[in-house]
Specification:
The chain is α/β, with parallel strands linked by helices. Helices cover about 25% and strands about 20% of the residues. The strands form two sheets. The chain has a six-stranded parallel β-sheet. Strands 2-1-3 form a three-stranded mixed β-sheet, with no helix packed on it. Strand 4, helix 2 (about 70-85) and strand 5 form a beta-alpha-beta unit. The protein is elongated and about 60 Å long.
Length: about 200
Amino acid sequence: MTAGFPLETVFTLEGDLADYGEARVVTVADEVVARIATTTTPQAPIAVAVVPVSVIPDLGDLLVAWGVGDPGNVGTLIRTAAAFGFGFVCGPDTADPWSPKVVRAAAGASFRTAIGNADTIEELRAGGRRVLAAVASGGVAPVRGPEAIALVIGSEAHGLPDDVVVAADLRVTIPMSSGSESLNAAVAGSILAYALRS
């Protein structure tokens, strides 16, 4: 609600005095909450909302998950995008940003930043964005330039596909101590987003 995200229905327990705006409020028993929730030990309230239309903002920075299949990593990247003023984009073979596990991992950030989908690198260049590919080695240290960016993060296991790396304008690598090969996708994305925030 405080994020301006419209709710359709809220299932809550007796005694909940929260204001849910124009949403329909249904008071239910604990057993009902347990049946409609997607977690093992759910807590009320449970809200129903319409998944918004996928939108890639025309302007501004983007944090892009490309082939990141783990819902926890995708949710954390959405949380990172919201924290540092990036829009968020799901590339091919990325976990559904509106799946329950991703939404839980995003900890409310799904409602504070634009979330879109893209199938090609060219879609990320709108508004004159420069595409930066995060690679485990061989890239430059992250340094912010004057233009908006689309920072593309690949899966922890496989990294970015070769064609995505080749299509990018710049490869960026996090400098690490010797002996460290790579970082978790969400950790790498968070460090780079912080370093490259506008």
